[in-house]
Write a structure and sequence with these properties.
The chain has about 260 residues and is an all-alpha fold. About 70% of the residues lie in helices and about 5% in strands.
């Protein structure tokens, strides 16, 4: 009787960081999306529109917001396609849009923009909170987020599972924020843009909503093939990454500074 191959344990140990990373990403996505949609519903209700609250959407329960296509099939499909075509993982998706009725709003154009910005705003708050916790733990208990080499306690070799989870949580929230701020209907950024448009231009812009996700997919996969420029990647390079690096590099800088004193 075989007592088990010790190599199996080694494989599990080697895969553990990836398993933790995947689990952290999954939990982060669920929390980020749920709170993002809750924020839309909360702001709409705050401004006088009870539609989302009455339909049970003013909730952080993920089941209230999951869209079978946008939250499950589309992210998995894009992940597989990106790995096969680009060799790097990329995915995106969407939850069920939070319903609201502009007729309830006192100032429909302004309040629609406020409802739109509420989702990305809560994601920035959550990412900042994760960065603050990372900084606090770096000051008070650095071993909770950093791993060290055997030779020297001052040599950082990586992040602990909790440190990985905090980093992913900040990243996913910033990704959701800046992705939704792209001014393509029905993304949240379009709600802000519509505030400044009038007449036929506003109607034409709103009519793009039915093609919005196709436009985004084209920008991600097909436009780079034609003009050899990844516009979405450039956008994230100048928005998402500077903020993410700011939130995550400060704790590391503080740690090294404290060790040098």
């Amino acid at each position: 009787m075989n007592g088990g191959n010790p190599l199996d344990l080694d494989i599990i140990i080697n895969l553990l960081p990836r398993i933790i990373a995947f689990a952290s990403m999954a939990v982060s996505v669920i929390l980020a999306i749920s709170l993002h949609e809750w924020a839309h519903a909360w702001m709409a209700n705050r401004l006088g529109d009870p539609t989302a609250r009455m339909l049970g959407r003013m909730s952080i329960n993920p089941l209230r917001h999951i869209d079978p296509i946008g939250t499950v099939l589309m992210p998995i499909g894009l992940l597989v396609v990106s790995l096969l075509t680009m060799g790097v993982p990329f995915t995106m998706g969407y939850a069920k849009p939070v319903p609201f009725n502009p007729r309830y709003l006192k100032n429909p154009k302004r309040d629609t923009a406020l409802v739109g910005i509420a989702g990305p705003a809560i994601n920035v708050i959550l990412a900042t909170g994760a960065g603050f916790i990372l900084l606090l733990l770096t000051l008070l208990m650095p071993s909770a987020v950093f791993t060290y080499g055997d030779q020297s306690a001052s040599f950082i070799t990586g992040l602990t599972p909790f440190g990985i989870a905090l980093g992913f949580f900040a990243y996913i929230n910033l990704l959701l924020c800046f992705f939704n701020l792209i001014p393509i209907p029905p993304l949240d950024g379009s709600r802000i843009v519509q505030k400044f448009l009038k007449g036929n231009v506003r109607q034409w812009y709103a009519s793009l909503e039915r093609y919005g996700m196709f436009i985004v997919i084209a920008l991600v996969f097909f436009v780079p093939m034609v003009i050899e420029v990844n516009l979405i990647g450039l956008y994230f390079r100048f928005t998402l990454w500077p903020v993410f690096e700011f939130l995550t590099r400060i704790p590391v800088s503080v740690l090294f500074h404290s060790m040098s004193l």
